[in-house]
Amino acid sequence: MAEAHQAVAFSFQITHEGVHINYDTEILNIVWTSGVRSYRKRFTRSLNNIKNGVFPSSLEFLAAILVLVTACHFVFEIDPSFGFISFASSHFPITSIVKLFDLADSARSIIACFIYGICVWVAKAMVMKYTLRCLLIYKGWMYESHGSGPSLLSQIWVFFMKMLTIKKPLLYSYQGALPRLPLPSVSDTIDRYLMSIRALCENEEDYQRKTKLAHEFRDGVAKRLQKYLIFKSWWASNYVSDWWEEYVYLRSRSPLMINSNFYGIDTLFVVPTSSQTSRAANLVYSCLIFRRLIDRQELKPIMIQGLVPLCSWQYERLFNTTRIPGIETDKLVHYSDSQHIVVLCKNKYYKVNIYFKGRLLLPREIESILDKIVADESQALRGEEHLSVVTAVDRVSWSQTRERYFSRGINKTSLDAIEKSAFVLVLDDVDFEFDEKDPTKLDNYGQTLLHGSGYDRWYDKSFDLIVGRNGRAGFNAEHSWADAPIMAHLWEFILAYDFANLGYDENGRCRVGNGFQPPAATRLKWEFPEELCQTIDKYVIMAQELVVDVDLKLIMFQEYGKGFMKKNRVSPDAYIQMALQLAYFRDSGKFSLTYEASMTRLFREGRTETVRPVTIESAAWVQSMHDQTKTKEERIALLKHACNKHQVGYQNAMCGKGIDRHLFCLYVISKYLEIDSPFLKEVLSEPWKLSTSQTPHGQAGLLDLKKYPKHVSAGGGFGPVADDGYGVSYIIAGEDKIFFHISSKKSSNATDSLRFAKNIMRSLNDMRELLTVAS
User: Fold this and answer.
1) Catalytic pick among 73, 386, 479, 489
2) Nearest CA to 284 among 208, 399, 368, 195?
3) pTM exceeds 0.85, yes or no
4) What are the tens digits of pLDDT across the range 690-740?
5) Domain 551-593+613-658+687-775, architecture per CATH
6) Is 451 in the active site?
């Protein structure tokens, strides 16, 4: 009955005794504070938009210019405007304004000074912004050898960059200055493509066939397709990102679980508390602090070498975002604000308001709400206990079920609560365990975060925050709205903020907060007709078939880390990619098309580009490791040459000189124009047998990782991208640890994650032995 009472905030009755007005002051206060908060956010965003629009200039500089111009005109009797102020003060539209308000001549001059000052300020801001954009177009600094030092041109570039970025930027300050992703020529892309497949071709005849196809495409329909793509690159902020999001992610009809979503793991060597609700409360509060930093644009933009900004566009959809299923394509829906989260506990769903009377709830207050949720002994309804499985099956099935059973009534209301939440918190009913002596526990940890039981994650939300029964945590993230570095930044921030700013008392309970008891959570209500229950039961079987087929292994390599790699003057990323190539060759006896993700966030709205690690140089080195006629010196030379080649390929991808995104966009245009291209069809149908990705760290900057080496996350992973291939994610966790997340499918006779893990460790040890002997 309390819920029914709260549903009526205001009512009135007219009787023979008069008008009776009834209202609930608490509800009206909530509505009032919510409105105030909303308008305060709008005002802050409007002010920030002005600051971002004129960056690297500032509003403070506007005030300085206005004071200077006015002082020159009135005090020193100097005309800094070359006659504009005198002309403007006596001509339209200033004269009309003066007549209307009957202002004195001095007031006319002040208005003219202000108009001139604003014009100077806007002109100066635009010059500074486009100068900064021109500086950011320059990418020569990426290719310079660190050993030889920067060139004179780079030194000049650094000087001007420092001059223009001396002011503290907001999160989106650099967006207007970032250059657009450059469109490479078809000839350059074809040349790079042919170089990338040379080592993959079975024989010379196969290579010549592909070369002929490529040249026919280049000299034929490619010219027409490229013209359309040039037009798009002129008017679109990024000629790739929108099509990549739509056709690679949103139009995919396969299940998100395993095939698309990815996960992240807690710090393994530091467990701050064993209390599930206490840890969850601190992490929820830390997430909301991160969201507030984004809303206020106080989060520092990520900078390379402290000078070059990365695009911050993807942060916008980190919270309050959900993926809505459709028959042909899904859509991403982002809500400007959300004042609640949804908690999934023991297969029941609860709506938790995270604000009370206009302020964010503190950890101890959130903790008390979660304690009551965990203590709730009521049983989940039939259908409710496996409800989230609808987001784990193929998108067409979920779309049809959503339209039929969740488009009206209380089911729609409850589904709206989930989809409009800031994020979903999952209080899992199992322990997340780690034991260096028992690697299977870490494997189970990763599997639980990747897919759980198949029906205890809401895969459509931008991310689920997952906390185990013993206080360890992780996340599961949907991929279409952004790439892994954004979630990695959030994850690193909340783990560091939990340790550095919040903490726990001697009983493992939340330390920050007071004795205030916030309103209890509201359990979401559902209706489950028998037909819907049977549909959900069918989906559970489908999800279980996907879950049991996943072969996921996590390994912690502790023999050495990036310190040894840098000592031998090789890029750590290139070094590990060579180890993966050697391991794959030993695993399968051949080379296969390999995908490595590279970010293109040096450009506006940039996402990723593909680096192709299999090169002529990498293949030559791998083969030399099995050629007894090669000396160690020759193998070392081949290894370093392959690493340098890979690093250049990675830099090219970051600078917009990749292969696959360009060809992908040409393919999309060919489909629009109904043009058949055998070359594009063959290129885009080639399977990626090995998909790799590095998990970034060190972005949050809250903890000195050298001082707290045990507070590094174990990274995260994803499912296999091919039925007979591997998915490998890794994180270089300090000087002496590397975590690998290896996934494949048990149904494939060609793959075995444990076997591949052993080959990776063997390859790393062989490479250390090779370089150690040399040194």
Assistant:
1) 479
2) 368
3) yes
4) 999 998 776 666 666 677 777 888 899 999 989 999 999 999 887 788 999
5) 2-Layer Sandwich (3.30)
6) no
